[in-house]
Amino acid sequence: MTSADKEGQGMPLVVFVPIILCVVGILVLLDIRQRQRNPQYVAIDTQQQAYEQQFLQDEEDQEQDEEDEVSDDNHGEGSSSAVRVKRVGKKRGEKLRRKEEMRQYREQMDRQRDIRRAQDEIYEEEFRRKKIEQSIKRTDEMEKRKKEREKKAKAEAKEELKTQKLQEKNAKMKQSRFSKYSEKLKKLVKEKKLSNTNELAKLMGLTQEEVVDILKQLCNTNDEFKLCLWSGTDTFLFITEKDYTEFNEQFKNKGKMSIHDAIL
Questions:
Q1: What separation in angstroms does the CA of 45 have from each of 27, 29, 33?
Q2: Average pLDDT rounded to a whole number, residues 251-256
C-alpha cells in the first residue's frame, strides 16, 4: 500500500462538517428566496400570521373576561341583573352558566332554609301556646274540682248538722210525747192485754209510729214491760211474770188453754 493511500484513509470526518454546514445554509437561503418570489407561500405565511394574531386576541379577550369577572365579584357577586357586553368563549360561557346555576341553587337553598326556619318558629310558637293553654286548662280544672269538693264538703257538713239538729229535735219531741202519753198508754195496754197499735193511736190521738215508739221505750225502760211480746208493729201483748205463773198453773190443771182464756 502506498503512502498516499495511507494519508487518504487517515483523514478525519470533522474536516467535512464545515462543508456540510455551508451546503445547508445555501439551501435555506434558496428556499427563502423562492418563498418570497412564489405567491402561494406568501398566502400561507399570511394565514399563519392571521391565526397567530387571532390566537393572541383570544388570549387577550379571555384575560379581559377574567378581569371583568373579578371586577363584577367586587361590585356584587351573584347579581342576576348583571349584563356582560363582551363576547365570551364557549368554555368561558359554560363556566359562567355553571356559576349562575350554582348561585341560583344557593339562593334556593337559602330560601328553603328561611322557610323551614319560619315554619319551625311557627310550630314552636304553636307548641308553646298549646302548652300554656293546657296548663291553664289543668289549673282551671283543678281549681274547679277543688271548689266543687269544698262546696260538697260544706253541703255535707250542713246536711249533717241539719240531720243532727233534726234528730235532736225528734229526740226531744219523742221524749216530750213519752212524758205526756206514756202513763195513759200504759194504762190502756194493761187493761187490754192484747192491743192493736192502730186502735191505740186513734184512742191516744197519735200516729201508729208514735204509739210504737212509746211502747218500745216502755219495754226498754220499764220492768213491767220487759216480758211483753210483739207481732210485727200492729199487735202488742202486755204480759208480766204473774201472768206467766197463772198460765202455767191453768195449763197444768186443764192440760190445755185457748187464746181467749190466755187473754182473759
A1: 19, 17, 14
A2: 64
